[in-house]
């Protein structure tokens, strides 16, 4: 992350520093049933037990063959976990549960329309459907171990069925968030070189049936322009047996899965015995440059880690009904809707729509109807539910034992409402800090062992040893002083590399604090997360936000460079700069500053055109709060745009001393423009 030095406006810089809060303790009832209660777990996972300690996680899985080496560091820092082991993720999430639990619900699928029935899919049914679809992928689509497939699907039971069918064959899945645009999907098809795209015809969002097939057509056309030909588009039907899209099916390219799969009814596919280090999936995420990077996750290490985190931190038992509200198109959904809960034989809830449709009570009706007892969501959703229905949870008869918050810092006030209103004072809360790259949690309390502290994630989870460095690589040990949070040791859930770009992987996550680039010793390779954090005297970490060009909007990670390059596609635009602005519900929002090419007039239509260009290229989640067309960007004498100044203006803060700028007078003009409206 060498280029973080040159940035002036980051989330961390505009973070609010909250005061330390009092502890909340887990109830005896919770402790009485918890999966881990012995504090000795922290000793078992101390650094001197590394890496052997992690076999405890791997032992939670069923292996075809045990590993020879726990951690192979020969290609540092591309670590290989459980080297020599053979395993299949689909087998671990399905087949191994059939003997005792085949009639238990694996997936509750909740359609957005309340008048539609909830679908309860048993482990046996999941087994049947995954096998049939795997047979289709192999025999009809011609996919085999190591191939990549792009999946652009909404929240549906068919999404995990698709992922698990890929995993069964050793096909590497790359799921693109359903709300991303066709263009974002195309970029991922091209980068992963997928020749098969799996989609769905339509889905409900806020009561409307949206045509999704149209995105597949556009994505395939855009990918072809970039040289990647998709020869098969497999389209699931929202209503099996009937098409819900007006977009035509291209002859010889597009197929409705629900038709083709009939040929494979009853088919069974032997799971591939994957090497532990073979990739399971790619998950693209935003970074410091315009191009999203494909975080590559391995099979054995990743699955061991998410299973252990689901058991120890999420406290999932096979008898639990677990609802994580995230979208499966993000890492949270991969790890904590699909792989972790299913590996533990829990029942996992998949909800199609928005949590507040048709009203603020919807989420709690779902919890009541399904007897959900573990609940997992992001601060953005909590803030929204609190704002529109602060008294709704009390009206419904559900009881959570455990709740998670993930994805953004949570304000202590919001945390307290979550605890008292949503949790009814009965549920413990874990604030889990982690990332797409990390596969599973980095910091969180172990719920029955450590007390909760609103606004703080907690210490490193067992096996994770965080450290905070200053800009020069010195450890910051004083409580409350912010620095760059790093992890001293590798762990099994860590991404293996950036798909097709090992150099970028090394540069982004290790170069800054690497002690010796030639070293094969893991101690020389601390992982830099890209967040600023403080540690308090009790060892709890508080995450302040990103130190790089990434903005966290409603828990969705967006690159400012990605948004800027989308704006620059509009031909009237000369320069674009994005800064994060604090927002009551979303946490942060992007504000977009634009300077036009000479002779071009600023108009509302042009601002709209730029905003639309961003939605088209990335998705609605990246829509700027406002497009500010300014006469000129504030610049240093060397011509660098001063985002710090723009950020201060957007956040109504102090712009500081601007007299050293090349054009200080423009600052007042921009300030008047922004702060007047
Ligand atoms: O800035 C941190 C923030 O989200 C970033 C990771 O985003 P993503 O890869 O999309 O993964 C989101 C789901 C894990 C982090 O770098 N973040 C994540 N969890 C927390 C958080 N910030 C504060 N507190 C958290 N619990």
Q: What's this model, at a glance?
A:
28% of the residues lie in helices and 22% in strands.
Helix content: 25-40%
Distance between the termini: 36 Å
CA-based shape: globular
Please count the beta strands (DSSP E, at least 2 residues each): 30
What do the pLDDT scores average to?
A: 95
The count of helical stretches stands at: 19
The percent range for strand residues is 15-25%
- Work out the oligomeric state of the chains in this entry: single chain
Give the low-confidence spans. 1-7
Could you explain how this protein is built, in words?
The chain is of the alpha/beta class and about 675 residues long. It has an 8-stranded mixed beta sheet with strand order 12-11-8-6-7-14-15-23, with helices on both faces. Strands 5-4-17-16-18-19-20 form a 7-stranded mixed beta sheet, sandwiched between helices. The structure holds adenosine-5'-monophosphate-propyl ester (PRX). Adenosine-5'-monophosphate-propyl ester binds next to helix 11, strand 20, strand 24 and strand 25. Adenosine-5'-monophosphate-propyl ester (PRX) binds near residues 457 and 530.
């Amino acid at each position: 992350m060498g280029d973080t030095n040159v940035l002036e406006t980051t989330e961390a810089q505009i973070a609010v520093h909250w005061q330390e809060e009092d502890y909340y303790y887990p109830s005896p009832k919770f402790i009485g049933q918890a999966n881990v209660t012995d504090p000795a777990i922290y000793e078992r996972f101390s650094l001197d037990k590394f890496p052997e300690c992690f076999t405890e996680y791997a032992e939670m899985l069923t292996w075809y063959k045990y590993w020879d080496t726990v951690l192979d560091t020969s290609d540092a820092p591309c670590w290989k976990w459980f080297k020599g082991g053979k395993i299949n993720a689909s087998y671990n999430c399905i087949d191994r549960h059939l003997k005792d639990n085949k009639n238990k619900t694996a997936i509750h699928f909740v359609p957005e329309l309340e008048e539609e029935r909830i679908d309860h899919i048993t482990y046996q049914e999941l087994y049947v459907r995954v096998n049939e679809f795997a047979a289709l992928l192999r025999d009809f689509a011609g996919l085999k171990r190591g191939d990549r497939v792009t999946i652009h699907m909404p929240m549906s039971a068919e999404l995990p069925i698709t992922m698990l069918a890929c995993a069964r064959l050793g096909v590497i899945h790359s799921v693109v968030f359903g709300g991303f645009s066709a263009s974002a999907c195309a970029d991922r098809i091209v980068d992963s070189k997928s020749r098969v795209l799996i989609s769905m015809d339509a889905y409900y969002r806020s009561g409307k049936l949206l045509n999704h097939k149209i995105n597949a057509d556009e994505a395939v056309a855009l990918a072809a322009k970039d040289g990647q030909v998709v020869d098969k588009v497999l389209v699931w039907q929202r209503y099996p047996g009937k098409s819900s899209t007006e977009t035509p099916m291209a002859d010889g390219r597009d197929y409705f899965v629900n038709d083709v799969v009939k040929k494979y009814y009853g088919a069974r596919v032997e799971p591939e015995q994957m090497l532990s280090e073979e990739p399971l999936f790619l998950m693209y995420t935003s970074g410091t440059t315009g191009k999203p990077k494909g975080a590559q996750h391995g099979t054995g290490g990743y699955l061991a880690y998410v299973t252990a985190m689901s058991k120890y931190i999420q406290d999932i038992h096979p008898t639990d009904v677990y609802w994580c509200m995230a979208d499966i198109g993000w890492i949270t959904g991969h790890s904590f809707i699909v792989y972790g809960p299913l590996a533990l034989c829990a029942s996992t809830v998949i909800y199609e729509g928005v949590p507040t449709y048709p009203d603020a009570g919807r989420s709690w009706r779902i919890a009541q109807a399904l007897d959900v007892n573990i609940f997992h969501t992001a601060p953005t959703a909590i803030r929204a539910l609190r704002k529109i229905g602060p008294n709704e949870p009390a009206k419904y008869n559900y009881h959570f034992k455990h709740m998670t918050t993930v994805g953004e810092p949570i304000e202590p006030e919001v945390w307290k409402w979550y605890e008292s209103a949503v949790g009814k004072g009965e549920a413990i809360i874990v604030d889990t800090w982690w990332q797409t790259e990390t596969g599973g949690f980095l910091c969180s309390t172990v719920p029955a062992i450590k007390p909760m502290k609103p606004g703080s994630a907690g210490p490193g989870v067992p096996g994770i040893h965080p450290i905070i460095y200053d800009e020069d690589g010195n450890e910051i040990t004083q409580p409350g002083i912010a620095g760059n949070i790093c992890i001293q040791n590798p762990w099994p859930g860590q991404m293996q590399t950036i798909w097709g770009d090992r150099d970028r992987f090394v540069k982004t996550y290790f170069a800054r604090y690497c002690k010796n680039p030639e070293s094969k010793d893991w101690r020389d390779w601390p992982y830099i997360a890209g967040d600023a954090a403080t540690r308090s005297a009790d060892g709890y970490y508080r995450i302040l936000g990103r130190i790089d060009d990434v903005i966290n909007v409603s828990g969705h990670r967006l690159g400012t460079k990605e948004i800027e390059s989308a704006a620059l596609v509009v031909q009237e635009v000369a320069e674009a700069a994005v800064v994060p602005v604090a927002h009551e519900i979303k946490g942060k929002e992007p504000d977009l500053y634009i300077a036009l090419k000479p002779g071009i007039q600023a108009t509302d239509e042009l601002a709209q055109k730029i905003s639309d260009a961003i939605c088209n290229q990335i998705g609605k989640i990246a829509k700027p709060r406002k497009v500010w067309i300014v006469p000129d960007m504030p610049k240093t004498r060397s011509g660098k745009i001063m985002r710090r100044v723009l950020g201060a203006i957007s956040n109504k803060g102090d712009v500081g001393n601007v007299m050293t700028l090349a054009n200080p007078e423009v600052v007042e003009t921009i300030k008047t423009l922004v702060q007047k409206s």
